[in-house]
Write a structure and sequence with these properties.
It is a single chain. This protein is an alpha+beta fold. The chain is built from one helix and three strands; from the N terminus they run E-E-E-H. The chain has a three-stranded antiparallel β-sheet, covered by helices on one side. The longest helix is centred in the middle third of the chain and has 17 residues. The chain is globular and about 30 Å long. The relative contact order is 0.21.
Length: about 80
């Protein structure tokens, strides 16, 4: 079994984009942008939104030696605002 990573993938709506960041579990300090896509291309609840998430997670997993990611969880309360 692969140990739990000391990071998470954080998805955030920022302006007209949905951005994926590599972030520490507690907050966004020092987060690194992994990928970004126009919100017009990934409507809420769409299969395209799920595919974008799959692409980001598969790419990161492959580059880190096969780490598996948990199902999405809500953002920490300190990060929730607007569409979060």
């Amino acid at each position: 079994m692969t140990p739990a990573p000391d990071f998470r993938i954080a998805y955030r709506i920022e302006g007209d984009y949905w951005n994926a960041y590599l972030a520490n579990p507690a907050d966004m300090r020092g987060a690194t942008l992994l990928a970004s896509i126009s919100l017009a291309l990934v409507p809420v609840g769409s299969s395209e939104k799920a595919k974008f998430r799959e692409i980001v997670e598969a790419g990161l997993s492959r580059s880190l030696g096969g780490i598996e990611f948990d199902d999405p969880k809500p953002a920490p309360l300190s990060e929730r605002a607007g569409h979060a």
